[in-house]
Amino acid sequence: MDISEISKNAKRLTVEEQQRLSLQNSRMVSQHKARMLEVEAKKHWDLFYKRNETRFFKDRHWTTREFEELLGENVDSPRTLFEVGCGVGNFIYPLIEEKLNFNVVACDLSPRAVEMVKSNPQYDSGCMKVFQCDITTDEVFGQVDKCTIDIATLIFTLSAVHPEKFVLILKNLHKLLKPGGIVLFRDYGLYDMAQLRFKPGCKIAENFYVRQDGTRSYYFSVEEVEGLFNESGFEVIVNSYIHRRTVNKKENIDVPRIFLILPEMPLEFERPVSTLRFSWKTHFVLEFYFEGSTMKGVII
Ligand SMILES: C[S@@+](CC[C@H](N)C(=O)[O-])C[C@H]1O[C@@H](n2cnc3c(N)ncnc32)[C@H](O)[C@@H]1O
C-alpha cells in the first residue's frame, strides 16, 4: 500500500539523521579517487550491467500514471521520445507495451546496457534507435538531430553524473527538443534513505556519493532542480515534493525512499525554445514517515 502526500517541504531530519550526515564528512573521498571515478564512469556502469544484467531495476509501470504527458491524448502522429540513460530499458519497454505511438530514441553510457536493450524481444529497429553515448559530451548530436525530440526523459539518470555536468546535459536536451517539447524528470530526492545510509568514505561532494560498485549518486532538492532547469533555458511551472510511505506489514517492509519527479508541459503550447515552459514535481518517497499534518491517501 502506497500513501502519498504532495508538499513543498523537504524531509526534516531527526537529530540522529543529522548526526549520521555529519559523520559522512569525517572521511571524504580523496580528490584523486573522485577524479578517477569520473574518468572511469563508463567502466563502472558497464561492470554494473555485467554483474546485474537485466535483474537490478524493476520495470517502471508507474510512468503514465505520474507523467500524463506520455499518454498524448489527441495526438495523431507518432511522437519522438528520447530516454537518456536508458539502462536496460525498464522505462521504455513498459511504454512500448502500452502502445503509445512513440518513436523511441534511447542512449546509455554503458555499451552492455545498450546491447541488452537491443536483445529484448520487444526491440523493434523500425521505431527504436538505441545507441551508446555519453550525454555529458557532444556525441549525442552525431546521433540525434537538434529540434527533433518531443519528450526527453531523465529517469534516475541525472543523479548518476557529476553535478558539474548537470547544466551541460540539460542544455544538450534543450537543443534536441522541438519548440514546445518537454523534459520528464524523476530522480532521488534530498535525504533519501539511501543518502542517509552512506558511511564515512563515500561522500565525494555535497549530496554526491560513491557506492561500493563505483557508480555514483546525487540527491536533489527541489530548489536546486528548479535552478538547474532555469539556468538551462527551461521554465518550471509546478514544484512540489511527493511524500510517500509504503506499508507492507506482511513482508515487513521498512525502506524509506525519496525521489524527485519533473513533468507536465502541456503539448498544446507552442513556444520558442528559449522560453520553453514545463512544470515539475518533486517525488519524495518515504516509508513510515510523514511530514506535515494532512495526509492524503492514494492506495495502489
Ligand atoms: C540508475 S540508471 C537508470 C536507468 C533507466 N533510466 C531506468 O529508469 O531504469 C542510470 C543510468 O544512467 C546511465 N548513465 C550514467 N552516466 C551517463 C552518461 N554520462 N551518459 C549517458 N548515460 C549515463 C548509466 O549507465 C545507467 O544506465
From TrEMBL:
It comes from the Eukaryota. SUPFAM superfamilies: S-adenosyl-L-methionine-dependent methyltransferases. Gene3D superfamilies: Vaccinia Virus protein VP39. Its EC number is 2.1.1.-. Pfam families: Methyltransf_23. One of its GO terms (molecular function) is S-adenosylmethionine-dependent methyltransferase activity. One of its GO terms (biological process) is methylation. The keyword Chaperone does not apply. Signal peptide: none annotated. CDD domains: AdoMet_MTases. Keywords: Methyltransferase, Transferase. Belongs to the methyltransferase superfamily. METL family. S-adenosyl-L-methionine-dependent methyltransferase. This is tRNA N(3)-methylcytidine methyltransferase. It comes from Aromia moschata.
